[in-house]
């Protein structure tokens, strides 16, 4: 019998006032797996990320972590489970150096003083785990390339040894070389046995990186795909609405996953 998924959502709903943003959402992410979350603007992708990360708790539905039902009502709940999120804006402070950004708000102190050497040592160790070079740990983040900043943001998310990482458009606005670096980084996370939820509009990235794809349309599930066997046209048709699934999709998901 296979191990339960790291994260499983069943019938998750989210409403803002009279507007139903998410309706009966199902999703599964397993260890060592990259799942792409696709959908047009307004499909509900960002809201679903907020639900999983505890920023905007679900109104209804079940969230399971490693087969056990849990409640994610705030970001701290997600972090305690082992869920980390890297948002598209990265939330880095450009005037701080790499070490300062990694430990902002969770500085290490010794005898009442900042332990700069320990924080620098841990930063170096994290970046070595990611096998990505940042030219100078004490360089202001504003001086780094976009790909290096993405590396810093992902390294910061790994401080708590998460098991699942949510990446919101990690290659948006990156050049070809920087995109390749980030894609290699995602591969490394999967190889380390982590689960990755990849939010992307780039079908090339999805085909290159993801094992599975889940499509949202107008706040509902609209398809689950094995990326290795599904054609790009099939996935795009689901995103655009050329292919519409039935309102309830538990059976379809179980078959696809």
TrEMBL record:
Gene3D superfamilies: P-loop containing nucleotide triphosphate hydrolases (3.40.50.300). It holds the Pfam family ABC_tran. The keyword Transcription regulation does not apply. Coiled coil: none annotated. Residues 7-243 form the ABC transporter domain. InterPro entries: AAA+_ATPase, ABC_carbohydrate_import_ATPase, ABC_transporter-like_ATP-bd, P-loop_NTPase. The keyword Ribosomal protein does not apply. This is ABC transporter ATP-binding protein. It comes from Streptomyces zinciresistens K42.
């Amino acid at each position: 019998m296979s191990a339960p998924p790291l994260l499983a959502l069943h019938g998750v709903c989210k409403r803002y006032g009279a507007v139903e943003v998410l309706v009966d959402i199902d999703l599964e992410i397993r260890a060592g797996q990259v799942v792409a979350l696709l959908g047009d603007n307004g499909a509900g992708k960002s809201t679903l990320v907020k639900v999983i990360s505890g920023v905007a708790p679900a109104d209804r539905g079940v969230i399971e972590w490693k087969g056990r039902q849990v409640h994610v009502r705030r970001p701290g709940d997600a972090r305690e489970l082992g869920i980390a999120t890297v948002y598209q804006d990265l939330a880095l402070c450009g005037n701080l150096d790499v070490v300062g950004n990694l430990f902002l708000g969770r500085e290490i102190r010794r005898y009442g003083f900042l332990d700069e050497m320990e924080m620098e040592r841990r930063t170096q160790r994290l970046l070595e785990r990611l096998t990505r070079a940042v030219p100078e740990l004490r360089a202001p983040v504003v001086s780094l390339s976009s790909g290096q900043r993405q590396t810093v943001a992902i390294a910061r998310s790994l401080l708590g040894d998460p098991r699942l990482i949510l990446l919101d458009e990690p290659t948006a606005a990156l050049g070809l070389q920087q995109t390749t670096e980030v894609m290699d980084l995602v591969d490394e996370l999967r190889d380390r046995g982590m689960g990755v939820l990849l939010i992307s509009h780039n079908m090339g990235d999805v085909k290159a990186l993801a094992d599975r794809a889940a499509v949202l349309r107008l706040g509902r599930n609209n398809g689950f795909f094995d990326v290795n066997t599904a054609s790009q046209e099939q996935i795009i048709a689901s995103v655009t609405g050329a292919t519409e699934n039935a309102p309830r999709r538990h059976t379809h998901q179980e078959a696809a996953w």
